[in-house]
Amino acid sequence: MIRHGVRLILRHADGIDVVAEAADGRQAVELAAAHRPDVVLLDIRMPVCDGLAAIAPLLALDPAPRVVMLTTFGDEANVVRALREGAAGFLLKDEGPQELISAVRSAAAGDAVLSPGVTGAVISRMLHGGEPAVADRALADERVGRLTVREREVLAMLGEGLSNQDIAGRLGIGIGTVKTHVGAILDKTGSASRVQAALLAHRTGLAS
């Protein structure tokens, strides 16, 4: 029923084609290898092979799809694992149709998909778990000190889980400009991903 609903929502969205539907993680990998989609939407909990186990083989494809995980509130531990495995982000199952469509479009555009409903809890868990990229506060402060004022503003919004489009709207600038700022932030702070940058924003107090 959930897959049917997701398919109906996405198939009527402009610019999105649903090329396949899988019943479990193993089938998802097989269908992704056959159809080479830009985005794969995975449930964390699935039979045979769950979504977490499917991430690595999906990302081993060439070209690799962007993987977005569906989750429920309170599933932070699995979300953290998914992000560390290389998932592009996560979306709550009770989000509305527009949020689902936006998440797929954002992932296809190379954006991170971090549902605001659980971002704070996930960030907290990752920080308390001693995430090495931001484990040292002094080092984190030094990295943020390399940024311009505008880049710090963008970093704070990454910490809130905002997409490039949301950041552009809030700051009144173009999406291309936001992408440039995000790239500079990742480079200057040594962050491997937007998620690590978001962690940095929380560690240094730019986001809460």
Automatic annotation (TrEMBL):
Protein name per UniProt: Response regulator transcription factor
SMART domains, A to Z: HTH_LUXR (SM00421), REC (SM00448)
Residue stretches making up the HTH luxR-type domain: 140-205
Coiled coil: none
Native organism: Streptomyces lunalinharesii
Keywords carried by this UniProt record: DNA-binding, Phosphoprotein, Transcription, Transcription regulation
Entry superkingdom: Bacteria
InterPro entries the UniProt entry points to: CheY-like_superfamily, NreC/VraR/RcsB-like_REC, Sig_transdc_resp-reg_C-effctor, Sig_transdc_resp-reg_receiver, Tscrpt_reg_LuxR_C, WalR-like
SUPFAM superfamilies: C-terminal effector domain of the bipartite response regulators (SSF46894), CheY-like (SSF52172)
Domain Response regulatory: residue ranges: 1-108
